[in-house]
Design a protein that fits this description.
about 30% helix, 14 strands, 8 helices, alpha/beta, globular
């Protein structure tokens, strides 16, 4: 079988599309014939050796995929031919503001939040991205480079503030979004590439009864509910590009360029 692996940390050039032995499914395992793989910034962090996760070399990248079951180990609940998705890191999914709403995770969050009935405010860095976010279903958008983000969020909520911020980036945008929360508001934090350490006013935090959740993982029931929602009519997230697995390095270069909107996928067929 084919896989993309790397033997040393570095840039996209360390990725090698190669033949590897097909694994045998063990107890509580199934083997999946993968049709499509999502490209995530975590893949880049792992490749560069800055993820903070233990990485044994050679390493096969990938945290989320979809395909069909091709073999089953000693487990129940699956049959060969079942359509499945892997259980790995993912975003969790009310008024809701979504930062980085034009990116891979943020654009999917817009679609899901609207499906769940939320009023959605998408936050992005340009008018062009804001227009595409509205096309994806957002009720409102804010170009944070053009207006003060906190003031914009409060204006769109008539001064009441947000119920939830879904933040994918951290940094100054997260600080501004926290200031735009309503009393009892929450933050779901799923990334920090715009700034890993930010100042938080603890007095404001407890006085307004705010809650910040770190959402680096998700539960199996959450995954099942999202897949069920997809089967029941949840729209697909925007797809910027679909590339063959052999072009994994180019897919990562595209992600690093930030010149994309929506998901970047790799396909094996």
């Amino acid at each position: 079988m084919k896989a993309v692996q790397f033997d040393r940390f570095g840039g996209p050039e360390v990725l090698d599309y190669r033949e590897v032995a097909a694994p045998e499914p063990g107890p509580h395992e199934v083997l999946i014939d993968i049709a499509c793989i999502g490209v995530n910034h975590l893949d880049i962090d792992v490749r560069e050796g800055v993820s903070g996760l233990p990485v044994a070399l050679p390493h096969t990248l990938g945290t989320e995929a979809a395909g069909v079951v091709s073999a089953i180990g000693a487990t129940e609940g699956f049959a060969v031919g079942d359509s499945v998705a892997t259980y790995a890191f993912r975003s969790c999914g009310e008024t809701v503001a979504i930062t980085g709403a034009g990116g891979s995770v943020g654009s999917a969050a817009v679609v899901l939040a609207k499906h769940l009935g939320a009023r959605v405010i998408g936050i992005a860095s340009s008018e062009a991205r804001c227009a595409r976010i509205e096309d994806s279903g957002a009720d409102h958008t804010i170009n944070y480079r053009a207006v003060d983000l906190t003031e914009g969020l409060l204006a769109l909520t008539d001064g009441k503030g947000l119920d939830l911020v879904f933040d994918v980036a951290g940094g100054e945008g997260l600080v501004a979004a926290i200031k735009g929360l309503a009393w009892g508001g929450r933050v779901a934090l799923v990334g920090a590439h715009a700034g890993e350490v930010v100042p938080v006013d603890m007095v404001d935090l407890f006085r307004r009864h705010l809650t910040i959740y770190g959402c680096g993982r998700y539960t199996r029931p959450i995954l099942e509910s999202v897949l069920a929602a997809r089967a029941e009519g949840l729209g697909a997230p925007p797809i910027h590009a679909t590339l063959p697995l052999a072009e994994a390095a180019e897919a990562q270069r595209l992600m690093e360029s930030r010149a994309f909107f929506g998901r970047i996928l790799l396909t094996t067929h």
